[in-house]
Fold this protein.
Amino acid sequence: MGALTKLRVNGAVRETDAPEGTSLLEVLRNDLDLTGTKYGGGEGMCGACTVLLDGVAVRSCITPISAVGDGAVETIEGCEIDNHLSVVQQAFADQGAMQCGYCVPGMVMSATALLRKNPKATDKEIIEHMDGNVCRCCGYPQMLKAIKSALGAGQ
Amino acid sequence: MSLIEITRRQLLKALGGGFLVAVLPAWAIARLQRGQQAPQTVDAWLHISATGEVTVLTGKVEVGQNARTSVTQAVAEELRVAASSVKVVMGDTDLVPFDRGTFGSQTTPQMIPQIRRAAATMREALVDMAAERLSVARSSLVAADGVVTGCGGSLTYGELAAGAKITKAIPREVALTPVSDWKVMGTAVAKVGAYEMVNGAHKFASDMMVEGMLWAKVLRSPSIGAKIGTVDVSKAQAMVGVRVVRDGEFVAVAAPSLRLATAARDAITAEWVETSKVSTGDLPKLFAVPSTERVRYTCAYIAHAPLEPRAALAVWAGDKITVHTGTSRPFGVRTEVATALGIPEEKVRVIVPDTGSGYGGKHYGDAAVEAARISKAVGSPVKIVWTREEEFKFAYCRPGGVIDVDAKVEDGELQSWSHVNYNSGGAGLETPYRVAQKSERFQQFASPIRQGSYRALASTFNNFARESHMNALAREAKMDLLDFRLANLGDERMIAVLNACAEKFGWRTYSVEDGHGIGIACGTEKGSYVATAAEIAVKDNEIKVLRAVTAYECGKVLNPALLQLQIGGAVLQGLGGALWEAVEYKDGRCETSAFSSYRVPRYSDSPVLETVVLDRPDLPPAGAGETPIIAIAPAINGALFQAIGSQRNSLPLRLGLLP
Ligand code: FES
Ligand code: FES
């Protein structure tokens, strides 16, 4: 058994005995049962595993837990507060911005980071920011609409 | 007692009583109406509980095509209840009737009408019961919002269901709600389950875990058909908590954590006997296609690459195994698992949670069988999730292929047409154009690379070759791409779609910049029609699609918002196959292993995307998940003529690699 690593996830302190090189994705999903964060490829190319680390979108599959330190991790499970979806979640639901839905948590987390950093983002900036998130169902137009409406609503 | 009756009684027991109706396939109803014995086939079950909950049990599954939402809408419409009060149980082989699978766009044309009929029958039966209980004429009663109401009082569906004593399928003719009266169908109902998707609560098969579960990893071969020479599992075996499973060529490990399982698998050393020389560099050579004077088109093998990889969780209870997995064929997977384990099918239950897509790529139970075998060997629940690399290397591909075309045109009219497809498939082989003399043929081939179904099957390539050839013929005849097509079409539906597309695009008056080009192409498959027009720009040897307009007609439109999504998704997905996607093999080894070596469409690749939906309330609805994918590639190809002076004869369209 390795030493325990403490992680701050969605406002709570969680512990894991995973070795420090283990990816944040694996720890979130398999050790902490936060399976809303998805695996899509494990090499930082698809964005399915996106979470926020101190408010910044990171790919948890290529982020070892040793790199997290005492940074605040936010996952899709932390977005909904008291049964109220976040602005971005609500926008995705309202716009029906999904087909199979598998990419949606990663999309929502990336868009959430954008909303906080640059709530006045232009279309071009949104596309640039979101380009690392793959939707294999190719629901991009609808998702773009959702993100735009969330940015509008968040202002 | 009939088989249906036995199942019905079992189900009623499981559901705690209530009103249960069997949804029979159309042909079974026809037989009943002719007074013949009905075959023992049920398409779905429809149930109302004593508390008024409506449940549909169907063997269809939700793989991203919104089958769940369409079924919900159909039932809500005909039963006159809110969509939110309908629960759809899908793909659980212990609860739902047998189904061949959710593919080929068959849910909408075949399943939905039957479900509607059954729901309407159920509604009328409820009115009958209410008339009897209230002792009033049935014509004075109205069913709405889950209640049958008349002047003599009202009864909820639940109250009626509690006393229901119907014991057989009701084959009577009922009137379906006419399109003009639709309140739920034909409207933009939100996707059922959207909430659990946006908050991350939905458990895909890859998310499921149970107490005491082990993670498994399989030792994979390095090349096609490679056999294990020697294998040393001692290091893995020595790791605390690791179990090694060996059964002939099948070598796997199971461990309490994914990282330990992965480390154990990596600790196994094996020497492989490799024999395959298969390469995808020269497809005609791969398929041993003779050289030809005709124009030759080729198409790469491509991967479905569903974002959720293959995954399964196998759990035993006594001598029965339950496997949770994402697939379009729950009953097919049940057979696979039973066969692999050598146990009867009744001892296997397959449950399919709504799945992270498939596009035709999840017909089989690879992960399910692996999890089941390992679980049997180690005696614990076992979970397996394929990595992206495993997906690229071991999942089946959309077939690569070669098509040779020859055609003759006189005065702008097709005189003869010949089209031979090697290996890719027969779907969409037939030309929609008028031509007196034609021969169209598909030549099968035993592909050394694992291949199978894909969204729209071979229509994508057949349509690419045909429409690209039409582009070339139009150029030769010095005719406009649109005019040449219209001059050779007779099918009104195809013409309507092409015209609608051209008009929305502004084809006749488009101003095209230098280095840009426009193209238009059409196609039909599975009773639906599509045309796409595209504007492209070529820069630094890269094709960028700036705008794409797609006109689509698939009969009566059931849910316009979801249809738009499907069309947009299909066109964009088609862009990947048109421009970049190819799974490459060299000397039997797969060289594609990650999204970094397999480019798929992203946000920045999305052109301005417009769709025109031609609603035909007079025609039956056709499925919409597939056909819109087939026109984008030849439209782009046609645009290349204008942009750089020549088109390409291969999918993907690579500018640099071809003359
Ligand atoms: S799983 Fe992390 S980027 Fe794809
Ligand atoms: S909705 Fe299926 S991957 Fe995005």
Remarks:
- The longest helix of chain A spans residues 140-154.
- Residues A 98-103, 135-137, 139; B 64, 307, 357 surround FE2/S2 (inorganic) cluster (ligand 2) (CB under 6 Å).
- The domain at 87-153 of chain A is CATH 1.10.150.120 (DNA polymerase; domain 1).
- Chain A has two domains: 5-77, 87-153.
